[in-house]
Request: fold
Amino acid sequence: MPSDGTIGGLVGKLDVLRVECPTCGRQGRYHVPRLLEQLGPGYRLTDWLSERTADCPQKNQAGVTRACGAVMPNLVDLP
Reply:
């Protein structure tokens, strides 16, 4: 993850931010310039991911609590 954990921290490092969930198979690609335009550079990536996965059936299942497995895999190698 970028050192400051914000969308602005992706500038010059990524053009597209990927989201994948190995648990349910959901995936998506988000263009960083568009995210910057819509949310601003200071928006926290963890907050953004939580919003993107708010409708995850793993988070909203009655009874047994399961964790959503959504990750941003192309952040792993960022400085």
Summary: The chain has one domain: 7-75.
